[in-house]
Specification:
By secondary structure, this protein is mostly helical. The chain has eleven helices and no strands. This is TetR family transcriptional regulator.
Length: 217
């Protein structure tokens, strides 16, 4: 028996691919319908407008990110609870966590297309520009600044400016993630993964207090 088609899911997936390649503004409902293989009226049965599709994609992205973070093993809970976990995490394990997130943003199809969609459209659509800044500038920097401030205060990190620590940590990773879009083969992509790991290790060795850099006994 042929499985019943999930047309709504097909519309979301096709829309994301089109938005990532041509841009949100340049893609119409007719193009989305054609990509799915349905009539335009059928798209409107599931989504009232293109903005509704975008809103659904953003919700899906947030849901998938939470699931990916848990699967990778990122510490959870309050800031204090996460600080305690990070403070006793060996640098090599931190590199594993960093690699997991790097691979998620560069190898997971949905996450990669979502990131590319915002990158393509950030200069043309104010709303998508704001989303780009939220996902890839403002939210990660704000979170890391809070985390590093707590790690400094707890004694897990050497005394330093948390804002500058966040910039030092995140900017190279974001550059490497963007570079992955232009990697021509598996070897080139793995080289970028290796650079990301080395960056995380170097950052931890430079800033973590000596006992915590080695991890627990």
């Amino acid at each position: 028996m042929t499985p019943r088609r999930n047309t709504k899911e097909d519309i979301l997936q096709a829309s994301l691919r089109l938005f990532a390649r041509a841009g949100f503004e340049a893609t119409g409902m007719r193009e989305i319908a054609a990509a799915v293989g349905i009539q335009p009226a059928s798209v409107y049965k599931h989504f009232a407008c293109k903005q509704a599709i975008l809103d659904a994609l953003v919700r899906r992205m947030d849901e998938r990110y939470e699931l990916a973070s848990a699967a990778i093993g990122l510490p959870e809970g309050s800031v204090d609870e996460q600080v305690r976990d990070y403070a006793v995490t060996p640098v090599a394990q931190m590199a594993d966590l960093g690699e997991g997130m790097f691979r998620y943003w560069t190898e997971d199809e949905f996450a990669t297309l979502f990131r590319q969609m915002l990158t393509v459209e950030q200069y043309r659509t104010p709303e998508l520009g704001a989303l780009y800044r939220r996902y890839f500038i403002e939210a990660p920097l704000a979170w890391q600044e809070t985390l590093f401030a707590s790690m400094v205060e707890s004694g897990a990190f050497l005394r330093d400016d948390p804002k500058m620590l966040a910039l030092e940590f995140f900017a190279p990773l974001m550059m490497l993630i963007q570079a992955a879009d232009g990697a021509t083969d598996a070897a080139a992509r793995e080289h970028l993964v290796d650079l990301a790991r080395r960056h995380v290790i170097r950052f931890g060795e430079r800033h973590a207090c000596a006992p915590n850099a080695e991890g627990p006994e």
